[in-house]
Amino acid sequence: MSDTSPTKVIDAMLADLGDWRGEALSRLRALVKEADPDVVEELKWQKASTPDGVPVWSDAGIVCTGEVYKEHVKVTFAKGALLEDPHGLFNASLDGNLRRAIDVRESGRLDEEAFKELVRAAVALNRATGRRR
Hints:
Blueprint: H1 6-17, H2 20-35, E1 40-44, E2 54-58, E3 62-68, E4 72-77, E5 100-105, H3 112-129
Antiparallel strand pairs: 1-2, 2-3, 3-4, 4-5
Helix pairs in contact: 1-2, 2-3
């Protein structure tokens, strides 16, 4: 990866997808930023399968990550198991000790307000634990 900012690399990644997955991750990204205007976009875990890395949104620690797969877009909340999910958005990685994820499929709908509530709760948890990036 070059010295291009993570935001520009993520913009390019989304544009390169050119299908519903790019649109879905773009919308999820916008919702994260709406829920937490102070969120920092980063790229982590560069490897052969993800040469640019994985989009990560952080505020006092990782809030969530966004990954694109063939059949779905996955948003993983780093401390999702510690969050209340009254709207039942978490539908993946439910057996993990710490993480929880939301798999968004092409035909699926996401409660955007409930998603933003989860983001805000994740940020509040990060800030409460005092951990910094």
